[in-house]
Amino acid sequence: MRIKFLTYFYEMKGVLNMEDKQIKNFIHNELSNFNFKMYTKGTRYLEESIYICIKEDNAIDNLTKNVFQRIALKHNEKSYLSVKWCIEQVLKTMYNNTKMDVICNYFNIDENLKPSLKFIIYTISCKYKNQNKNL
Q1: Residue 60: which of 14, 110, 128 has the closest Cα?
Q2: What is the DSSP letter of 39?
Q3: Which residues of 53-75 are buried (b: 16+ CB within 10 A; e: fewer)?
Q4: Burial class (CB in 10 A: 0-12, 13-18, 19+), 51
Q5: Please, what is the angle between helix 117-131 and helix 41-55, to 10°?
Q6: What CATH class has 23-131?
Q7: 45: closest CA among 80, 93, 19?
Q8: Cβ neighbours of residue 96 closer than 8 Å, sequence gap 6 or more
Q9: C-alpha angle 39/43/47, rounded to 5°?
Q10: Which of 32, 38, 94, 104 is deepest in the core (most CB within 10 A)?
Q11: Euclidean distance between CA atoms 31 and 25, whole angstroms
């Protein structure tokens, strides 16, 4: 419990070690495959959601409790619902601005499907963990 608190404390203060910087760069590069507006609050919240899920294996089990509430607290949002709404809006924009074949190829899904928020986070988290499991 103390380690999680210290990790969260350092995240709040903006203190990152090399591994954390590597993770954040990886997430940013992966999201660059799609037409996100990278300067928006929703994209920043999505990046933070993926980061938390990479750092903590069980976080993805309950995004509301384990991820969105932490992000809301960090950014002084009134509710986790604000965080979720911002991410959902940026995903809608990404779906409209990215070619469907790019999305389908990256996530290995059929042409007429759009990946859910949880599936996007899960896929990028797994991709990072698979690339770095030998380190």
Answers
A1: 128
A2: T
A3: bbbbeebbeebeebbbbbbbeee
A4: buried
A5: 50
A6: mainly alpha
A7: 80
A8: none
A9: 120
A10: 94
A11: 10
**Whole-prediction pTM:** 0.85
Please report the pLDDT score of residue 7 as a whole number: 53
Query: Amino acid letter at 127?
Result: K
pLDDT at residue 2, as a whole number: 42
Q: Domain limits of the chain? A: 23-131
Q: Are 103 and 95 in contact (CB under 8 A)?
A: yes
Q: How far apart are CA 26 and CA 34, in angstroms?
A: 14
How far apart (Å, rounded) are the C-alpha atoms in residues 119 and 57?
15
Contact criterion met (CB below 8 Å) for 123 and 131: no
11-34 confidence digits (pLDDT tens): 555 566 888 889 999 999 999 999
Tokens of 127: 């991709």
Tell me the C-alpha to C-alpha distance, in Å, between residue 98 and each of 65, 94, 106. 30, 6, 12
